[in-house]
Specification:
With 287 residues, this protein is mainly α. The protein starts with a helix and ends in an 11-residue tail after the last strand. The strands form two sheets. Strands 3-4-5 form a three-stranded mixed β-sheet. A two-stranded antiparallel sheet has the order 1-2. Helix 2 packs antiparallel against helix 4 and helix 5 runs antiparallel to helix 7. The protein is built from twelve helices and five strands. The longest helix has 21 residues. It folds into two domains: 205 residues, no CATH class; 64 residues, no CATH class.
Length: 287
C-alpha cells in the first residue's frame, strides 16, 4: 500500500471514528421482504415514485412530513433493502450507471432527512453526508462516497481535501466512466441552495443534465448586481471550480444557458467582478 493510500484510509477512519460511524451503519439494513431480479432497476422505479409523491410542484420543495406516512416511501424503504443483493451488472454502464447513482444519491438524502429527523438546517447533524449510507452489492456507500468517490471519480472532497477510496478499494469498480460536471446541477443535498430535484433516466440523461444546468443557472445559481457590476455565482461553482475546468469554463457555461440579458451583457463585456453567494443550508422542506 502506498503512503497516499495509507493517508486516505487513515483520514477516512479518523473522521468516521469521531462521527461514531460503523461500516454496518446503513439506512437499508435488514432482510428484504421481497426480492427483485434486478434490485437496481426496482430502486429506480421506486425512487421515481418517491419523487412524484415528495415534490411540491408549486415550490419545488419536498413535503417530508406527508412523505413519511406515504405508501411510496414505505415501498421505497422496502426496496432499498434489496440493494445489498445487487450485482455490478445490475447497475448498468455509461449513462445508465450515472443515472442510477444520481437518483440513488437524491433518494438517500430524502431518506436521511426523514430517518434522522432533520429540521432547520441540513448541517444540524454534523457528518450527515458520511452517516447517510446504503449497502449496495454488499458494500457501504455514503452520500459523500457516491458524490466524490463514484460520480466525481474519486476526486478529493473540496472540504476535507482527501479522496474517498484507496487504490485497492472494490468500490472503485462501480464508479462512472467519466466526470461530467453537470452532475453538480443534479445532486440535491437537502438544502435550499441546492439545485431543483428531478428524476434522471439513461435514455435522456444528456438532455436532462443540460436542463438541470439551465434550471440552476436561471434559478438561484447566478445573479447580477448592476450597481456594483458584480456577477454572483453559487458556491457550487467555487467548490467544484476544477471540475468545471476553471472560471473561464464556468462563465462560458453560464453564458450558454442564462436568459437574463443583464447577465449576458456583463459576460459579453468581460468587465465585471465575481463573488460567490452565501449557501443556504436550511432544509428544502415545504413545511
Amino acid at each position: 500500500m502506498t503512503l497516499a493510500d495509507t493517508l486516505i484510509r487513515g483520514g477516512n477512519r479518523t473522521f468516521d471514528f469521531f462521527l461514531r460511524i460503523d461500516p454496518g451503519d446503513v439506512l437499508n439494513a435488514g432482510t428484504p421482504t421481497e426480492k427483485s431480479s434486478n434490485p437496481a432497476r426496482a430502486m429506480m422505479k421506486a425512487s421515481k415514485s418517491l419523487l412524484a409523491d415528495a415534490l411540491d410542484p408549486d415550490t419545488g420543495l419536498i413535503d417530508y412530513r406527508s412523505l413519511r406516512e406515504s405508501d411510496a416511501y414505505t415501498q421505497f424503504r422496502g426496496i432499498t433493502r434489496q440493494l445489498s443483493a445487487c450485482k455490478p451488472g445490475d447497475l448498468g454502464h455509461g449513462p445508465a450507471l450515472m443515472a442510477f447513482w444520481i437518483n440513488l444519491y437524491n433518494a438517500l438524502i430524502i431518506d436521511a432527512v426523514i430517518s434522522f429527523g432533520i429540521q432547520g438546517s441540513i448541517m444540524s447533524r454534523p457528518g450527515i453526508f458520511r452517516q447517510a449510507a446504503y449497502n449496495v452489492g454488499g458494500l457501504r456507500f455514503s452520500a459523500d462516497e457516491i458524490e466524490h468517490g463514484i460520480l466525481r471519480r474519486n476526486r478529493p472532497n473540496p472540504v476535507m481535501h482527501f479522496r474517498s477510496f484507496a487504490a485497492d478499494d472494490p468500490r472503485l469498480s462501480l464508479m462512472v466512466d467519466h466526470l461530467d460536471p453537470r452532475i453538480h446541477f443534479s445532486l440535491v443535498c437537502g438544502a435550499r441552495s441546492c439545485p431543483p430535484i428531478a428524476f434522471y433516466d439513461h435514455e435522456h440523461l444528456d438532455r436532462q443534465l443540460d436542463q438541470a444546468a439551465a434550471a440552476f443557472i436561471n434559478g438561484d445559481g447566478v445573479h447580477y448586481l448592476a450597481e456594483t457590476n458584480t456577477l454572483q455565482l453559487s458556491k457550487i461553482f467555487q467548490w467544484y471550480l476544477a471540475d468545471f475546468g476553471g472560471l473561464p469554463a464556468v462563465l462560458e457555461l453560464v453564458q450558454r444557458h442564462v436568459h437574463d440579458m443583464e447577465v449576458r451583457s456583463a459576460l459579453e463585456s468581460g468587465d465585471f467582478k465575481v463573488r460567490y453567494l452565501r449557501y443556504d443550508w436550511k432544509v428544502n422542506s415545504s413545511a
